[in-house]
Amino acid sequence: MSFGTIPRMAKHLALYPGSFDPITFGHLDVIRRGRRLFDELVVAVGRNPGKQPLFSAEERTAMAEALVKELMRESPHDAPVRVASFDGLTVDFAKSVGATVLLRGVRNLNDLQYEIQQAVTNREVADLETAFVVAGQSFAYTSSSLIRQIAAMGDDMNALKAMVPPLVIEGLKKKKASKHPMLEALRRGEG
Q: Which of 47, 55, 69, 190 sees the fewest Cβ atoms within 10 Å?
């Protein structure tokens, strides 16, 4: 049996793609851990034309940039991180920035099943490997969609303080105060 060899790259740049709508402590945990695994990390804020986001791509990118700066101040010796937004296929963006691997967080078996399917496809189609990190126990059930539901239905946004940073809570408060259509639809049970 012969195994293919993966050529050793001089620099291991990982791409961590997602919608980050909104970014959570779970996402930040994946970024923190990815900084210890790779030489450089790009947090890629995707724009999915099939989904209407709560926060614009510019808002999501700005939140991620601010939070990544905090992480880098806390651990200046870990790998550098940059944040970028992109349109189109993740694999095309990964190749454009020179990524050698996609970084993905896995919370549970449902995530793992989906992520493995994506990983196999990305490897076959774009010759791009995927590295998984398992979510910490406190992040295993946190998702951006859950955050949006709580924001839509709840009265006290501070109830989210264990799941998202204060910067995100402030953004959610503004969206709720402005009666953002997505939050209103979720509140009515339409989302």
A: 190
